[in-house]
Task: inverse folding
């Protein structure tokens, strides 16, 4: 999952080197943390959060097959 999120985010940002994607197991769920440069945060979140919502939808649809809950959080 991390590699997919990283690929999607890197295709959106200008500074690909600043993209950091980490995951943390939290019981029965996985939380994927995405960190980008402050200038690129708006590109990843999008207007009214539409891009971020789309990324979350893609990841949730893939993770539904495995039965695990996966959450994606964005930050600087």
Result:
């Amino acid at each position: 999952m991390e590699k997919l999120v990283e690929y999607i985010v890197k295709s959106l940002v200008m500074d690909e080197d600043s993209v950091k994607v980490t995951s943390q197991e939290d019981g029965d769920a996985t939380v994927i943390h995405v960190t980008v440069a402050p200038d690129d945060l708006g590109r990843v979140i999008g207007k009214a959060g539409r891009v971020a919502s789309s990324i979350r939808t893609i990841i949730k649809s893939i993770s539904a097959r495995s039965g695990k809950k996966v959450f994606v959080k964005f930050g600087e």
The chain is about 40% helix and 30% strand.
